[in-house]
Structures are given as C-alpha cells and as structure tokens.
Amino acid sequence: MHALDFVGTRLCALSSGALWWPERQLLCVSDLHLGKSERMARRGGGLLPPYDSRDTLQRLDTEVARLDPATVVCLGDSFDDLAAAGALEEDARLWLTRLASGRDWIWIEGNHDPGPPGLAGRHVPDLHLGPLRFRHIARTTAEAGEISGHYHPKAALAARGRRVRRACFLTDGARLILPAFGTYTGGLDVTAPELRALLGPNARAILTGPTQVSVPVA
Hints:
With 218 residues, the chain is α/β, with parallel strands linked by helices. It has helices at 36-42, 52-67, 82-86, 90-100, 193-196; strands spanning 2-6, 9-13, 19-21, 26-29, 71-74, 104-108, 122-124, 127-129, 132-134, 146-148, 153-159, 162-171, 175-177, 188-189, 204-207, 214-216. 20% of the residues lie in helices and 31% in strands. The chain is globular and about 45 Å long. It starts with a strand and ends with a strand.
C-alpha cells in the first residue's frame, strides 16, 4: 500500500485500486461497473465473457476479508446501468448482501446508476465525513478533501525496456481521483485535458499493481 497525507488525514492507496482510511475503518472503491457484459449484450454490443461481476466481487471480497471495514463506500457507477443492477444473478446479489452485513454500506450516485440499486446498504448523492468529500464526479471548482472516481485514470511508464500501463490514483494534495475497480473498465490517460484541468501542477499518479509506483503527472 502507498500511504498518503491528504488534507490532514492518513489514507492508504491499495495495490488493488481501493482506498483505505484506517482511522475510520473505511474502505472506498470506485466504478465497479457490475453487469457490464450483460448491458453490452442487451444493447447489441460485443459479447464479452460474462464473468466480470464475479471477478470484481471476488477482488472486493478479498479486501473486505483482509481489512474488515466498518464502512464501505462505493463511489458511483457501481453498476453499468440500473437495469444491470436488476439483472444481477442471484448469487451475486447474495454475495453483496453478505459483504454488506454488519457494515455501513454506502452506494454513492453515479452517472450510470443515479438511483438506488435495490440492494443492501444506503444510496446517497455524495458523502461528507470529517474533512473528506466523497462524490462520483469531481467538481470543476476546487474543493479541498474531494475524493472522486468516474474517469478511470491510467498512467504509462517505461520499465525494463517496455511500456507498462496501469490503472492509477491521481492526487494533487487537495483532490484525489480513484481508479476504476471493475474488471471490464477502460481508462483515461492521466495526460488527458479533462484530468489536467482538475489537478494542480504538482499532481502525482500512484500506479496500482503488485509494485506501486508514484510518478509526477507532468
């Protein structure tokens, strides 16, 4: 894990792409996009192997079992659309119910899932806890302590003679943008103007994976 001093709080950017707030025993993940393969098939898109939800839930289960959080925040776009939430297989629904049991499980509204998913937990437009502000999409006007998702940031760097591209966290010390946690999610390069417009000149990318690396975005 990579420790962050973020607006006076100690956070941990985990290699899986999840965020851990030890003081509050809070685990945060963004952009699960559960049911993406089902939605693509339903809308006549390319057929993908229908194992994305199971793989995403397995990785989430691993973090929940390891950390035993009191609170889990799903930072929006937890489902590829509301129909995908309704079409989840029964074992996936039971899996989510088991993960949420005994915890404050919070679904934050995303642009793909603006309404309640009809599952265990509570659904909110955003969440304020202490100095931190959890929401799906970063606001264009800076607000210190904002934690968001939506953009699925990815960064590339050269390693051992080849180019490696990984999902990453982005932060400039005032804002923090999480990577997508879902299995079938693409990504936006950290140099994209949409991201550069949100972050200060000293922004850094923290790459996910077994060996976490922090690199300047510039």
